[in-house]
Every structure is written in C-alpha cells, then in structure tokens.
C-alpha cells in the first residue's frame, strides 16, 4: 500500500532506459521473449482491473507510449523513422498476442542507431574544440514533447548544437573553465557510448513491456528476472544508505521520494524532485552522473553505514540548471524506531491564555509483521503507538489533537483501518472494488473510541494511499477538518504474479471512501487549503500517463460524528486573517505564485550570455526580496545578496530556532529543528483546530 512500493516501476523503467543503446551486434527476440509477450498480453486482457481490449485503438496508444519511452523529447528519431514503422499503430496488438516482436525490436534498433550516431557526433564536435558565440539571441526550447518529429538529421544537428551550447554556457556561468567543460562533457557522452554495448534482448523486452503496461495504467508493469534484482538494489538503498528512492528523468537521476526516518529525510536538505548531477565520497573528487545509468548512480550513493556521501543537486524548484547546491549525508540504516509515530505539544496563545494542542506525526503505516504473525502480544504497530501517544497527550491536558500525515506515502492498509478505529465507535472505513465489480467493505469492529475530542488531519501532496484512506474516512465521518493540500491520489491496488519468464504486477482493485468517492487521481481535497510549492503537474497520480480515472460507487451507511462544514466559512475567514500577517505563510504564497509564473513564462532558455545573466539576476532578485520581506517581518537581519541567501538556506531552521521555541514546546530536546515553513503550517493547523473546538462547543 506504500507510495514507495510503487516507485518500483519507475526505477526499473529508468534502469532499462539508461541501459538502452546499440549493442555490437543486432539483438533479436528469443522464443522466451515471445512467450513473455503472449503471457503479458493475456494477463492484461483477463487479469487487469479495467476491461482491457488489445485492439487497433489500443495499438495506437501503445505505439505512442513506446515512442515516448524511447525518445520522449524527440531528439533522436526522425519523422521518416516514425513513418517507416507506422504499421505498428495497427499491428502492436497482433505483435503482443502472437509474440511476434521482430518489428518492435527493429524500431528499438533504429533508435539505438540514431542514439549512437548522435553521441558520436557530440564527441567529435567536442574533440574539435568548438567555439560558441554567446552574443546571438538564440533560445533553446525546454520541452519538445509536443513538438513535431524532425524532418532531417540537419534539423536535429541544429537542436543539438543549441543543447551543447546551453550545456557549455550553463557550466561556464558556474565558473568552470573551458578546458574543464570540454572534459566533463566529453566524458559524459563517451561513457554513454561505452554503456550502450551492454544491451541484450532482456533489456529491450523489458522496455517494450513497460510501454505496453504503461499504456494501460502507471502502476501495472512487467519485471524481468534481472529487473527484480535491480528493484532489490533500490530498496537496499532506501533501507541501508541515504533513504532515498531514485528514478531517471531524461539525462538526470531524480529523487522520487524520501523514506521516513531515513538519513536524507532527517537531514532535511534533499527534497523530492531534486536532480542529482554529481556524487562525491567523503572528501574525494566529484563524479559527474548526468547521463549515467540508474544502477551506476545507486552504486555510487550506496556505501557503508557511517560514511559520508556528497550530492550535487539541482533543486526541485529551480528552473536554472546552473544553480546547484551541495548536500552532505551520512549513510545509515533506517530503523523501525526512526519511522515510528511521535508526539509533541504546540502552544497557541490567545487573549484568554495559552492553549495546548497535541500533534502526532505518523510518517508511515507500519506493523512488525513477523512479531504479529508469531502471535506476540507486544508487537509494534502504528495503531498501538498512536494509542499510547494519545494517552500521553491526554495526560498533558491538550485541547485537541492533530494527526500529521504530511509526506506519509502509505504502508500497511490494516494499520490505516485500525487507526481510524481509535477515533470512531465502530463502522466502515474503506470500500475495495475488484475487477468483477464486487465490493468488499472493511471497517472497525471494536466498540468504543480511544479519543473522542477535537481532531484534525494535516496532509500534503506526498500523503498517499493508506494516508488518503485515513484522511478520507475522518472527513466523511465529520470527525474533524482535513487541512493542507490535495493529496497524491493513489487509489488503486496491485498484485504480483509469476510468469514463465519474470513477473507481472497488475492493478486489480480500486479504493473507495465510505461516501462512495474514489481516492484515485483526485486524492483527498482538504477542507482548508494551504499553498503548496509542489507542482501537481510534476508529482501526484494526475501527473502520470494513463492514470485510472476518478469515479464513484454507492455510499455505505455510517454515522457522522460532527459537521465541520457548518463552520468552514468562519474557520477559513479566521485562517485567512491570520496568515495575511504570518511571515512564513506570506512568503510561501508569494513563492508559489512566483514559481507558477516562472514555469508559465520560461518555456525556453536564452543562449545569450548577457541575457541569461539578466534572467538569472532577475529571478535571484525576486527570491531575495521575498526572503528579506519574511526576515524583516520576523525581526531578522535582511540578507545583502543572493549568494548570502544561498549559503544561509542550509541553516535556515537553526537560524530560527529561537523563534520556534517561542511558539512551540517540544517533548524531546534532541529533536532537530523543523523547517520554518513546515512549522508555520503546523502552528496554523493548531490555530484552526482550536477555532474549530471553540465553534463546536468543545471547551
């Protein structure tokens, strides 16, 4: 049920893409490959949640997805190549059903031919010591996904001249010498040429099958035997390295998510959607990883516990790839204790005194399955830990409790189900509909509640799967307001089955709230929304190709515990009045608006040095102005330059620790200082819950 578990497809696809390249001899499909294709086709037709028909209409969809998998930016293949293989628009279904993969392999071979030719062209160009004119008013389009296929090699030559010019300019603006730039870029493309010789039929088959399953939905996928091993490497990294799951995005390796309680999550500097450009070991030299295959990057990042790995990353929100920052992370093992729920008390100052609101942070829904299956009475689980924390907060006489599910990617469904039972007196919690339309109803069967006081749930875009089930149930029961930003929208269930060669993961069921609404695609919409810096077009179910749609089933009977909707107008008015004066909220709202504007405006990037610098300076000036406005409002010294802001950003939490201590009482003195934006959201959530308790008469 975890969001992290569903990274498997992305990681394996990324690995296959990174390995894709022309081998020394033509690679042709084997009989085993043909059998695997037939079995995947049959599995999709008869085992998928949706009514899948592999016909000509699907063939067009699969062909488009295959091309997107091979050449997403239309930078290698020509329009003539697409025309030559256009028969696959109507023959892709027959190829899968019959196991006749020759044409699909031939298209892959054509792509590899174009890729090899392009890499050789780049290396040759760099060997010729190119000279670029950075005074011309050239611009490079940042996204070619919707562009037409190139008519000729000469047209692609012009595109790649601009790309090479941009790479050179970006590195030169980072104060690298021409010699270093030429060496770095030559090594990058030469290494890619070396790696292309590793492709075999299994790599090609896996890539084709990912296009096939990906044209049905983003969570169904085929795993070759070796790709299953590659996923184990990914999970090893998440549990015994830095605690980050990675995927490929173009030439870059991107952070897809952080493991709760892992070194990266604790450090707080690495963020989802950050792109890694170089890796260093301790005090050693940097290794450029742009264009490097995913498993090689994983090997560089993975290492012994206690050692330090340095990552040079392009921040997730940066539109300028020249602006990188360094992140140092000490490798460690993620322990259950690090992922466990924890509690603290937030003080809310009002005219009538100080009010105490309890906060329970639930990073994931976990259970010690081994101890549970062994029949041990004291096995560890989310529900048990939360129940204990509720008792501790009651003893501290809190006036309400916030369940903080931000960044909770899911986990054990049984724990989300049983944790709902702590706050309701019996009742349904979630509906699960299978491919035949049969609906299973899950619920809390235990009488009584563990906590019946004022309650709120705090979520964000990275709250997914089981987190959405919990938040949706609390919202449907009217148990309390849901606060934050719209959740991820992962509302499907997958199972894995063995094939003659490899495995297939299929979407087999869908989650529905007790109200009848699906959590799929739309997620849970909060009652009171906070601005979010995360772009929903980049992260979330709705951002994925062929995500299953939102729909509804019949609601079930359940008892409502309250009517938060009655007070939402008053709660929102009070909330908006407060955040108008709250520096961190004002900053966040301005930052979100600026990011949206820049994304909308910057569809291309200037290749004129002075114009690029002006654009960079303008963006930096806006960022600096936003930060200084926040600092002045907080009584902090303003910064004099963007460089000073860049340097200070790594220590922003510690710089404001005094401010946080004034507004927060922490139960543990060794807890790391929180990000000021996250803390501002938590503080405002406490204000909202206190307002709700008073409006609802819960004093």
Considering the chains and any ligands shown, give keywords for the structure.
alpha+beta; six-stranded antiparallel beta sheet; six-stranded mixed beta sheet
Report on the structure:
The chain is of the alpha+beta class and 699 residues long. The chain contains 24 helices and 19 strands. Strands 3, 4, 5, 6, 7 and 8 form a six-stranded antiparallel sheet that branches. It has a six-stranded mixed sheet with strand order 9-10-11-14-15-18, sandwiched between helices. Strands 2, 12, 13, 16 and 17 form a five-stranded antiparallel sheet that branches. A hairpin with a 4-residue loop joins strand 12 and strand 13 (439-444). The model is unreliable at 1-24, 231-239 and 650-673 (pLDDT under 50).
Estimate the global geometry from the Cα principal axes.
Answer: globular
Q: Give the oligomeric state of the chains in this entry, treating copies of one chain as homo and distinct chains as hetero.
A: single chain
Mean pLDDT: 85
Number of strands: 19
Radius of gyration, in Å, reads: 26 Å
Short description:
This protein is an alpha+beta fold and 699 residues long.
List the helices and strands and how they pair.
Layout: H1 7-19, H2 31-47, H3 56-70, H4 79-84, H5 88-98, H6 102-127, E1 139-141, H7 153-172, H8 178-195, H9 201-214, E2 221-223, H10 225-240, E3 244-249, E4 252-258, H11 263-267, E5 275-281, E6 286-288, H12 294-301, E7 308-314, E8 325-330, H13 336-339, E9 342-350, E10 353-361, H14 369-373, H15 382-395, E11 401-404, H16 413-420, E12 427-434, E13 439-444, E14 455-459, H17 466-476, E15 482-484, E16 492-498, E17 503-512, E18 528-529, H18 568-579, H19 583-601, E19 604-606, H20 609-633, H21 642-648, H22 652-655, H23 657-663, H24 676-695
Parallel strand pairs: 10-11, 11-14, 14-15, 15-18
Antiparallel strand pairs: 1-19, 2-17, 3-4, 4-5, 5-6, 5-7, 7-8, 9-10, 12-13, 12-17, 16-17
Helix pairs in contact: 1-9, 1-10, 2-5, 2-9, 3-5, 3-9, 6-8, 7-8, 15-16, 16-17, 18-24, 19-20
């Amino acid at each position: 049920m975890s969001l992290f578990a569903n990274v498997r497809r992305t990681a394996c696809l990324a690995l296959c893409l990174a390995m894709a390249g022309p081998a020394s001899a033509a690679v042709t499909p084997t009989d085993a490959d043909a059998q695997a294709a037939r079995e995947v086709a049959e599995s999709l037709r008869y085992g998928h949640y949706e009514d899948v028909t592999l016909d000509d209409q699907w063939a067009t969809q699969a062909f488009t997805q295959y091309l997107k998998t091979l050449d997403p930016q239309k930078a290698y293949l020509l329009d003539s190549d697409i025309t030559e293989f256009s028969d696959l628009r109507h023959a892709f279904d027959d190829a899968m059903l019959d196991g006749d993969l020759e044409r699909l392999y031939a298209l892959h071979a054509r792509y590899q031919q174009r890729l090899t030719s392009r890499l050789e062209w780049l290396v040759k160009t760099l060997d010729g010591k190119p000279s670029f004119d950075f005074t011309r008013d050239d611009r490079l389009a940042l996204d070619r996904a919707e562009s037409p296929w190139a008519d000729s090699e000469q047209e692609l030559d012009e595109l790649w001249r601009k790309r090479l010019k941009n790479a050179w300019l970006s590195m030169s603006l980072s104060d690298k010498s021409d010699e270093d730039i030429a060496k770095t870029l030559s090594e990058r493309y030469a290494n890619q040429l070396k790696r292309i010789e590793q492709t075999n039929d299994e790599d090609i088959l896996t890539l084709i099958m990912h296009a096939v399953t990906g044209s049905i939905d983003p969570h169904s996928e085929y795993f070759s035997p070796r790709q299953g091993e590659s996923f184990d490497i990914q999970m090893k990294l998440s549990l015994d390295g830095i605690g980050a799951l990675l995927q490929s995005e173009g030439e870059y390796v991107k952070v897809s998510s952080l493991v709760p309680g892992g070194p990266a999550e604790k450090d707080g500097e690495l963020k989802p959607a950050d792109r890694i450009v170089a890796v260093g070991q301790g005090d050693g030299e940097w290794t450029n990883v742009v264009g490097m295959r995913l498993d090689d990057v994983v090997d560089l990042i993975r290492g012994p516990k206690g050692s330090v790995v340095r990552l040079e990353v392009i921040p997730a929100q940066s539109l300028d790839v020249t602006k990188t920052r360094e992140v140092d992370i000490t490798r460690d093992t993620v322990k259950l204790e690090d992922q466990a729920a924890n509690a603290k008390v937030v003080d809310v100052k009002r005219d009538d005194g100080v009010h105490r609101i309890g906060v329970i942070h639930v990073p994931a829904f976990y259970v010690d399955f081994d101890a549970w299956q062994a029949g041990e009475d004291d096995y560890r689980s989310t529900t048990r830990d939360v129940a204990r924390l509720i008792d501790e907060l009651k003893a501290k006489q809190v006036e309400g409790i916030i369940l903080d599910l931000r960044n909770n990617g899911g986990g054990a469904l049984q724990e989300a189900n049983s944790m709902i039972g702590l706050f309701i007196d019996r009742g349904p919690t979630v509906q699960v509909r299978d491919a035949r339309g049969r609906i299973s109803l899950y619920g809390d069967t235990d009488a009584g509640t563990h906590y019946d006081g004022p309650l709120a749930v705090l979520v964000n875009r990275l709250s997914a799967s089981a987190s959405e089930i919990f938040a949706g149930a609390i919202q449907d029961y009217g148990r309390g307001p849901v606060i934050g930003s719209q959740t991820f929208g992962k509302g499907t269930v997958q199972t894995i089955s063995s094939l003659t060669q490899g495995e297939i993961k299929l979407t087999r069921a869908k989650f529905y709230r007790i109200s009848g609404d699906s959590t799929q695609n739309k997620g849970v919409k909060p009652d009171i929304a906070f601005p979010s810096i995360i772009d929903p077009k980049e992260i979330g179910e709705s951002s994925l190709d062929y995500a299953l749609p939102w729909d509804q089933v019949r609601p079930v009977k359940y008892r409502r515990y309250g009517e938060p909707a009655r007070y939402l107008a008053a709660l929102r008015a009070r909330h908006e009045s407060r955040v108008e004066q709250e520096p961190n909220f004002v900053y966040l709202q301005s930052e979100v608006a600026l990011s949206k504007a820049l994304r909308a405006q910057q569809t291309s990037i200037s290749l004129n040095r002075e114009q690029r610098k002006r654009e960079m300076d303008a963006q930096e000036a806006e960022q600096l102005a936003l930060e200084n406005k926040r600092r002045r409002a907080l009584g902090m010294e303003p910064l004099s330059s963007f460089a000073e802001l860049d340097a200070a950003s790594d220590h922003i939490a510690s710089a404001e620790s005094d401010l946080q201590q004034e507004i927060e009482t922490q139960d543990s003195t060794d807890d790391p200082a929180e990000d000021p934006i996250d803390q501002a959201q938590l503080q405002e959530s406490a204000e909202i819950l206190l307002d709700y308790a008073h409006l609802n008469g819960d004093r």
